[in-house]
Write a structure and sequence with these properties.
Layout lengths: L1 H29 L4 H6 L8 H14 L1 H4 L28 H10 L15 H13 L20
Helix pairs in contact: 3-6, 5-6
Length: 153
């Protein structure tokens, strides 16, 4: 009986430690990025056709209301929405990290943070890839090959 009690106490303490670490990690992830921190971010999601397609789905669900279906922001709802097809007009930066920051943490009064609507960091990066695919072709990143699995698929 004593072994069971000790085991229970150890498991409980372990669960508390792990929970505290996860909570601190979540707090750090939720902490807004500075512009300098954002500039240093590099996407872990390659700029591929499948990533762009996933980003398009997210964009259609969460972004068209302000930026329009074509990204040109010619909708009547928000007068100050950014035209996503012309990076020269962007005020919050055009690096992949700065775009990630603008989506996750918001950008100014008219662009709210989307970290609660798009919770997976990977999905935010897919959205970044889609937005960059709207740029003039000469300004887009180079499209990368899809990685194949071990069995060639």
């Amino acid at each position: 009986m004593t072994r069971q009690i000790v085991r229970s106490i150890v498991l409980c303490l372990l669960a508390c430690v792990i929970g505290a670490q996860l909570s601190r990690g979540q707090e750090a992830q939720d902490k807004p990025l500075t512009r300098d921190e954002a500039k240093l971010l590099k996407s872990p999601v390659p700029y591929t056709k499948s990533s762009i397609a996933r980003g398009r789905v997210l964009y259609t669900n969460d972004c068209t209301g302000c930026h329009g279906h074509d990204g040109k922001a010619q909708v009547d709802v928000i007068a100050d929405a950014t035209d996503l097809t012309d990076p020269k007009l962007w005020k919050s930066g055009v690096t992949e990290g700065e775009i990630f920051r603008s989506i996750r943490d918001g950008a100014g009064i008219s662009m709210p943070p989307y970290k609660n609507q798009i919770r997976k960091s990977e999905d935010l990066w897919h959205l970044v890839n889609f937005i960059r695919s709207l740029w003039p072709e000469a300004q887009r990143p180079k499209l990368q090959e899809e990685k194949q699995g071990k069995d060639g698929l």
